[in-house]
Design a protein that fits this description.
alpha/beta, 7-stranded mixed beta sheet, 4-stranded antiparallel beta sheet, 14 helices, 13 strands, about 45% helix, about 15% strand, globular
């Protein structure tokens, strides 16, 4: 360490250590198939304790290679199908290196990353058919995007005074499908609107029942409540189903409500081929869309997007410029927009670069083809399961979500035990990652295919592994 700063005293040594570390990272991506999730050994966990001893960058590079890189989430492996995890991109290794080097603060001001974020928002706007003057901001994920969207919807319902006076005595109510994600509930809680005012409308075949929705709105109005938003889901977390956005838009228009779409992963089927693309028809009529680049666009964590149709309402919800943030006409303190005016964060990392890099490297068509291929893999997996002895699907496959049981001949409780045991065994052995969820009265196995490394053969291997794990469990 030099005397004057934290920079290396020997840049040559730093360069050599950094090059070796880069090689280790490239090796890891190139050999992703040989490197599934593994349990972190106790001595490695213990070694993470901060002792206070400075080891310098060269030793740091060694430790990053030996003690950190191997213990990832597993989602870079071709048979990772758990929850809904993005699988990362080689372009991300390049863009994250550059982003760390530049260390841009993207809350505002006049520099490259802000222009790039604008380009990413403009491109996304085009994908979803939003008007030229709509606005957006890159966020940590759909959970944060939902808070931003419902804040803007609340401002529309209660007026700009809400920023000063709070919710007051109003009971604002939002409506969503039975299978809507927990992030909707969290947003209602955080905004002080109350989870009890998120009304879950029953599903008809996995999509929000429109007649029941209309009844609920009418009943709430009669009771003196204030309906303010309808939340449609593009890709439900358990089943991958899509609400009917055109009908939801008709209902929101009739009642003057805000239409928000939770498209965390499913919104990106907009880039896929038929028939998947049409699942999002009508999404262009929404007031806001939240989705993630880190799930089905494969971009490294974290990066979500919130788009708001009316820029004026978006800005009115968040903008505030105390004197220490006042702009100048030219120079670094100029520029517009400043993204701090569109959301929660003031200091923000450079999320745009990894999205821009992915779009440059693979193109929207390349990413769209990967999404289409994932839907095909899900359908192939469904066929293999249907043909496999004693296994069965629990719901039809709409997009990329597959729910199944490893043995449909057992009683429900025994099936649940078996499915949990199979998921655990396949995870522990680094074979395949399925997650589990409760559906149709049992705990089932769940595969969400958002993995561009998964081949058709991987689907067969995953089910062969499932059969083997079943035999092992049932022989105990
Ligand atoms: C993942 C997910 C969310 C939450 O998004 P985060 O990026 O994890 O905050 C919301 N809705 C659905 C349907 C999801 O799959």
């Amino acid at each position: 360490m030099s005397q004057d700063s934290l920079d290396p005293s020997d840049w040559g040594a730093f360069r050599r250590a950094a090059h070796e570390l880069l090689d280790a990272c490239v090796d890891q991506l190139e050999n992703a198939r040989e490197r599934p999730w593994q349990q972190v050994p106790q001595e490695v966990k213990d070694g993470y304790t901060i002792t206070g001893t400075a080891i310098g960058e060269t030793e740091l590079a060694n430790r990053l290679t030996s003690d950190v890189l191997p213990y990832h989430t597993g989602n870079t492996h071709p048979r990772f199908f758990g929850w809904v995890h993005g699988t990362g991109l080689p372009s991300g290794l390049m863009s994250e290196m550059v982003a760390a080097t530049m260390n841009s603060n993207c809350g505002g001001r006049n520099h490259g990353a802000l222009h790039m974020e604008r380009a990413v928002i403009d491109w996304s706007r085009g994908v979803f058919g939003f008007p030229d003057n709509s606005s957006g901001v890159l966020v940590a994920g759909t959970s944060q995007g939902t808070v931003i969207a419902l804040s803007a919807a609340r401002l529309r319902a209660l007026g700009p005074e809400v920023r000063k006076t709070g919710n007051g005595a109003n009971t604002l109510r939002a409506y969503c499908g039975a299978g809507a994600h927990n992030a909707m509930r969290k947003a209602m809680e955080l905004l002080g609107l109350g989870a009890g005012n998120l009304i879950r409308i029953p599903d008809a075949d996995g999509t929000l029942d429109l007649a029941a929705l209309k009844d609920a709105i009418a009943a709430d109005k009669a009771a003196g409540h204030t309906p303010f938003a309808i939340i449609g889901t593009a890709g439900s977390v358990d089943r991958g189903t899509f609400d009917d956005f055109n009908s939801l838009a008709d209902i929101t228009a009739a009642h003057g409500l805000w239409l928000h779409i939770d498209g965390a992963f499913g919104a990106w089927t907009r880039l896929a081929d038929a028939p998947y693309r049409a699942l999002t028809d009508g999404i262009d009529r929404a007031d806001s869309i939240a989705c993630d680049f880190h799930k089905w666009m494969y971009v490294p964590y974290d990066c979500g997007l919130i788009l708001i149709r009316n820029e004026h309402e978006h800005r009115a919800t968040f903008a505030a410029r105390p004197s220490y943030l006042a702009p100048l006409d030219e120079g670094l303190a100029s520029g517009d927009p400043w993204y701090c005016d569109y959301g929660i964060d003031l200091s923000r990392g450079n999320r745009a670069l990894k999205v821009w890099s992915a779009l440059q490297a693979y193109g929207p068509d390349g990413l769209g083809q990967a999404i289409t291929a994932n839907c095909h893999r899900a359908s192939e997996l469904g066929t293999i399961i249907t043909r496999a002895e004693r296994m069965s699907l629990l719901a039809p496959i709409t997009s990329n979500l597959v729910l199944f049981t490893a043995d449909d001949t057992l009683a429900p409780a025994a099936q649940s035990d078996l499915n949990r045991a199979v998921a655990q065994h396949l995870q522990m052995t680094g074979h395949t990652v399925f997650s589990t969820t409760d559906f149709a009265g049992i705990t089932c196995l769940r595969a969400a295919i958002t993995n561009h490394r998964a081949t058709a053969e991987d689907m067969q291997i995953a089910i062969d592994g499932t059969a083997a794990a079943r035999a092992l469990h049932l022989s105990k």
